[in-house]
Structures are given as structure tokens and as C-alpha cells.
Specification:
By secondary structure, the chain is mainly alpha-helical. The chain has three domains: 92 residues, no CATH class; 65 residues, Arc Repressor Mutant, subunit A (Orthogonal Bundle); 78 residues, Arc Repressor Mutant, subunit A (Orthogonal Bundle), CATH 1.10.10. 56% of the residues lie in helices and 5% in strands. The protein contains 15 helices and four strands. The strands form two sheets. A two-stranded antiparallel ribbon has the order 1-2. Strands 3-4 form a two-stranded antiparallel sheet. Helix 7 runs parallel beside helix 12. The longest helix has 18 residues. The protein starts with a helix and ends with a helix. 40% of the residues are buried.
């Protein structure tokens, strides 16, 4: 039941297909959000921009439709979905945060990508990425659900996605790199944790914050910076922390959150 309620915000635990064929498609997302400049554009506008106006420069109609489908799986492309609307809000306020915004949104909408988080984050900075190890890791989780070729292809896409986000670097030989979080990335990580039910200091201890590779004190400092900019409302008295998101949640969504807890 909880998962069904989270779906209303755009958090989807069932989807997992994007990384079988694509990455987080960061460059396509950049181009699309630049092209569709109306902040409250309905989802049909995004589809029309890709498939009819070919804003991403794809060669065929079938490729354009596939691109629409995969981007929708990863990001929603619908202002009715809280996670996409909030991503767009932060996208144009913190340009440096865009790679982390993209990976964080994709994490709550793509099961396979989400499953790879522990593997990537346990790597030490400078450690060589070995794709066979990630293949074995995914196979151990999925338990014979996919063929060897599917897992190999999926891992190539996963490694590319984590490279686009900044967690890995290199083309042929990839190594672990440390990302630099910004206020926008921390706000989005906190907000996703909030939608999942975290409150107070626990919001700074979720997997979303871990993906930003900030410790708690660093994350608190960046959140305070975001609060001064008016993106969120944050109050801190000693160890007691409150974070509110008046810019991100409408009346209907407040009701859904109230239902949760």
C-alpha cells in the first residue's frame, strides 16, 4: 500500500526497464528542458517536442518514440508528478546540480539503477571500476531473471549513467570519482527522503543524501544555504532540525503526505 501511495508522487518501485537499453540520458534531458521552456508545460508538450518537433535531433520516428518512452520512465516528464516538477524547479536554479538531480530522480524511478547504489558507493575514490563485479552483483540480486547478455548490456548502461552523474570518470578505464554536491542537489535528496517518510535529522541520513557523497554536517550547511535562497524552509536548534518544502508541494499532495503519517 505504501508503494502505491508513493506512486502518486512519481516514485515508482516497479519500473526497471530504462537501463536495459539506455542510460540516464543526461544530455537529452538538458536539451529537452531547454527546449520546453514553459515551466508548467503538460506532458503532451514534451512528447510533441521530441516526436513531432524533433528537438533532440533523432534520425527516425521510431527512435524519437523510444526516446520519449525512456525519458518518461526515468523522469516522468509530467508536472503532475511531484518528483519531476521539483526536479525542474531546481534544474534552473542550480545548474551545477543537474547531473545529481538527474541520477537522483532516475533512482526513484528505475529499479535496476537503484539496486546498483551500494556497489558504486562502497568503491573508494580512485578505485578501478570492474564491470564483471557489477555484473555479478546485479545477478546476485536479480537471481537468474536475465540472460548474461542482458546483464552485460545493462551494466554498460549503468556504468555510463554513474559516469554522467560524476561518480565514475574515464572512458575505457573507469575509476571512482567523488562528486561535489551543491545546494540544489542536497535539497532534492532531502525532498525525496521526505516523500519516503523521513523527518528531522533522519532526512540527512537517507540513501539519497549518500548518493551526493556529503556527510551530515556538509549537507546541513548546503541545506541552510538553500534555505537562505528561499528554496526551502529550514530551522535548526541544536540537534533538532526541521525542513519544510512549501515551494514543492501543493494542497493535494499535502493531503497525501498527511495520509502517510
Amino acid at each position: 500500500m505504501k508503494e502505491e501511495k508513493l506512486n502518486r508522487f512519481g516514485i515508482d518501485f516497479d519500473q526497471g526497464g530504462a537501463h536495459f537499453a539506455r542510460t540516464i540520458m543526461l544530455e537529452e534531458l538538458r536539451q529537452l528542458l531547454t527546449y520546453v521552456d514553459e515551466i508548467n508545460a503538460p506532458k503532451v508538450t514534451y512528447r510533441h517536442a521530441i516526436e513531432e518537433e524533433n528537438c533532440l535531433g533523432k534520425r527516425s520516428g521510431s527512435t524519437r518514440k523510444i526516446t520519449t518512452s525512456k525519458l518518461a520512465i526515468l523522469y516522468g516528464l509530467d508536472p503532475e508528478l511531484t518528483v519531476f516538477r521539483t526536479l525542474r524547479y531546481l534544474w534552473f536554479r542550480d545548474e551545477e546540480a543537474r547531473p545529481l538531480l538527474a541520477i537522483l530522480c532516475s533512482i526513484v524511478r528505475d529499479r535496476i539503477l537503484r539496486q546498483s547504489i551500494p556497489f558504486i558507493l562502497r568503491m573508494q575514490e580512485g578505485e578501478v571500476f570492474i564491470k564483471e563485479q557489477l555484473e555479478e552483483y546485479i545477478e546476485s540480486i536479480e537471481a537468474n531473471q536475465f540472460t548474461k547478455l542482458t546483464i552485460e548490456s545493462t551494466v554498460r548502461n549503468l556504468s555510463s549513467s554513474w559516469t554522467q552523474s560524476g561518480h565514475l570518470k574515464g572512458r575505457i578505464k573507469k575509476v571512482k570519482s567523488r562528486v561535489i554536491a551543491t545546494p540544489g542537489a542536497i535539497v532534492y535528496a532531502l525532498f525525496l527522503g521526505y516523500l519516503m517518510g523521513a523527518r528531522g535529522k533522519a532526512m540527512f541520513e537517507t540513501d539519497f543524501i549518500k548518493v551526493t557523497e556529503c556527510n551530515i554536517e556538509q549537507a546541513i550547511e548546503l541545506a541552510e544555504s538553500a534555505s537562505r535562497r528561499g528554496w526551502i524552509v529550514m530551522k535548526r536548534v541544536g540537534d533538532v532540525i526541521e525542513v519544510h518544502f512549501p515551494n514543492f508541494i501543493d494542497h493535494k499532495e499535502r493531503g497525501w503526505i498527511y495520509e502517510q503519517g
